[in-house]
Amino acid sequence: MTTHEQVSLTSGADFWNTQAPAGTGLPAIMLTDGPHGLRKQRTDAGYAMESVPATCFPTASALAATWDVELLEEVGVALGAEARSEDVSVLLGPGANIKRSALCGRNFEYFSEDPFLSSRMAAAWIRGVQSAGVGASLKHFAVNNQEFRRYSVDALVDDRALREIYLASFEHAVVAARPATVMAAYNRVNGTHCAEHRFLLTDILRDAWGFDGLVVSDWGAVTRRSTCLEAGLDLEMPGYGGRGDDAVLEAVRTGELSAAALDRAAESVRRLIERTAPARTAEKGYDHAAHHTLARRAAQAGTVLLTNDGVLPIGSTERIAVIGEFAKQPRYQGAGSSGINPHRVDDAWTDLTEQVGADRLSYAPGYVRGSGRTEPALLDEARRVAGAADVAVVFAGLPDSYETEGVDRANLDLPAGHDALIAAVAEACPRVVVVLANGAPVTMPWHDDVAAILEGYLGGQASGSAVARVLIGDAEPGGRLAETFPLRVTDNPVHVWPAGPAQVEYRESVYVGYRYYDAADVDVRYPFGHGLSYTTFDWTELEIIEVENDDASEQRFDVSVRVTNTGDRPGSDVVQVYVRDVESTVFRPDQELAGFTKVHLVPGESRRVTVQLDRRAFAFWDTTVDDWSIESGDFEIRVGASSRDIRTSATVTLESDRTGFAPGPAGYHGSPVFDRDAFAELYGRPLPDNVVDAPGHYTVDTPLADIRHPAATLLTTVMRRKVAAMIPATDEDDPLSLLFARSLQELPPRMMTMLSQGAVTPEATQAFVDICNGGLLRGTRKLVSALRRK
């Protein structure tokens, strides 16, 4: 291709299509919205135009609540088929951003507050879509966790939180599912816009994770195309029919944009076109009814039974009061770019009528659907209808305007009219069931006054019939929460957005979701992973087997438990495995999800299920070596039904992944950093195989506790003995002893000159640091030279 043709490929032709430069033989391809359904617009005039009919599947918040990767893959296959039927080559989804705060207006499009669960759900979605020959677009990369100032806000996040939480939510999906594209987000991360962020797009995505697909901008996220291309972006969307190409050509001429970067971008577009060819050549059409049935099954699997005093499932002869306009006009999806034009929409009232008969049902609207407001006459009618029934089912939740792309929520409250309605119905009927339609947590001031709460989330076009059948017991509530429901918004460390600054500081670091609530010992309404069933399960025979492997990096533990359905109904349960570092020397959450599996059992059936934990499950991001590390010691493996319902546990012992680790101050584990050639030259023998190489980047300002090298351990030990000889013997809890112990850990090498009154020269200090950075021979020679001069 000519340079001009290459440049043309790096920007779209219009809102949804790529360019097809003459002479290249490459066709234009379409990219369009689709996290939970195909949103192909009938024209290219922007977001406001009507889209073609498609199946509206449950949103990501509901899909994640299924904890079922096989089901997610099925949904992905269906989405791919619908995209292919409309000649769509790339479906813009899934969204793998972390639910840092329940206030984010777009949380319904994201999976979880936990990166392990989020990344596994995203990977399954991608595998399904791409099995149809359609490309997925994993978004929004990265640290895109609020709608307020979303085009410009600068997310300031520390390295550990970035790696362990926000990037980890994408990492497994990229590595395991190989999405065709990754979408760069609008926001900035630590000062740089994502679309021009070389560290994110090149160093992490391509070099560290091996991504071989195309990086596309979010629509309008490009600041300056040439700058973004040089950093690792491949395709600017939307395009403007070639306008802007001249500026990129000039950047190539001046050397501002390298030929290598342009080659990479153009080749990425060419490979994407080739990779998605099946989407444009396959047989068209799909089974609308089968997809609707799948949407219902997914909605049921993501419906979470939060509490139940026995009122559910509703008895076969009971009179049912159905209250709330959502029963007849359901809220089933979020607002914004993911809005789907569904083939059909089920409502609970119609389905209940068909399932149980109209003679057992009565109805009251309760509130105005659009606003959620109520009035005395509506409340009085609801009381009358509820009082004449055996059980009252109130359909409540959040109106469309409460959850939408571009706008964050002001609080976690339901509309005042919904709260008032539930309270009024509870006064009139002792057996009240609340069915919620919302994309994220809500507060529940009426919680203790109702008999059962069913979280239906935004369950897609079949949500009405799905909920109806769960209510009467024709289907089970298969969901478990993929996020924590707090008691109140202020219990979360992120409960207000900055009103004016262009920056937002992620001061909570790795303490996101249940990690924070556990560490701060904060009561919650419902914990991460929670969900009840219509049957009961018994968990027994925990077994943890270490799988032998010659390669220590491939070490694995198989965690298995026997699950038995002890009730009289078929049902499913989710086995969740959490890992806790018993005695960590770095700050870490109390526990972290490391694996899960969903098991479906008929009454009396028993099955042993296994969850595999690799070494990454025990690791943290070590900022001293810019890599994942494990500290030697004990780790508790906890198996539970939620983050706060641990059923059984056991302890395993791991050796550090840096096999030469030696305990340093306060048990800190240091990392050996050796130059193998220098070692052999100095000692006349090779460096032992069990001592690993690792890059060092220590300076004279690095605290000794952060220098992971035996030399630092030795120096600290010597200094500790010197100090002990200088001060009177004291109890280890004595403030003076604590002061010296802490000071030794935080002491940077440069202070050795001051403490030794010049006996340790600055040159000797630098030589010590060189040794710790891997320059064993060079550092030793410097040290000898410094001592000779002294």
Annotate the secondary structure layout:
Blueprint lengths: L2 H7 L21 E3 L26 H5 L4 H17 L4 E3 L22 H16 L4 E7 L12 E3 L2 H19 L3 E4 L3 E2 L2 E2 L4 H11 L5 E4 L7 H7 L13 H10 L4 H17 L1 H5 L6 H14 L2 E5 L11 E4 L24 H9 L4 E4 L11 H12 L3 E7 L18 H13 L3 E6 L14 E4 L7 H9 L13 E2 L16 E3 L8 H6 L4 E3 L10 E11 L8 E10 L5 E11 L10 E10 L4 E9 L5 E3 L4 E3 L3 E10 L2 E10 L7 E2 L5 E2 L5 H8 L26 H17 L8 H12 L5 H4 L6 H11 L3 H14 L1
Parallel strand pairs: 1-2, 2-3, 3-5, 4-6, 4-16, 5-8, 10-11, 10-12, 12-13, 13-14
Antiparallel strand pairs: 6-7, 9-14, 15-17, 18-19, 19-22, 20-21, 20-25, 23-24, 25-26, 27-28
Helix pairs in contact: 1-9, 3-4, 3-11, 4-5, 11-15, 12-15, 13-14, 18-19, 21-22
Give a brief description:
The protein is of the alpha/beta class and 790 residues long. It has 22 helices and 28 strands.
Features:
790 residues; alpha/beta; TIM Barrel; Rossmann fold; Immunoglobulin-like; 4 domains; six-stranded mixed beta sheet
Mean pLDDT over all positions:
90
Largest sheet: 6 strands, mixed
Beta-strand level of the residues, as a percent range?
15-25%
Task: Give the radius of gyration.
Answer: 29 Å
Placed side by side, the strands forming the largest sheet appear as 9-14-13-12-10-11
Find the count of extended strands (DSSP E, 2+ residues).
28
Structure annotation, total helices: 22
Low-pLDDT segments: 659-675, 690-695
CATH superfamily of the largest domain: Glycoside hydrolase, family 3, N-terminal domain
CATH topology of the largest domain: TIM Barrel
What structural class should be given to the helix and strand makeup?
alpha/beta
How many structural domains in the coordinates? 4
Distance between the termini: 66 Å
Helix share bin? 25-40%
**What best-fitting shape do the alpha-carbon axes yield?**
globular
CATH class category label of the largest domain: Alpha Beta
- The CATH architecture of the largest domain can be named as Alpha-Beta Barrel
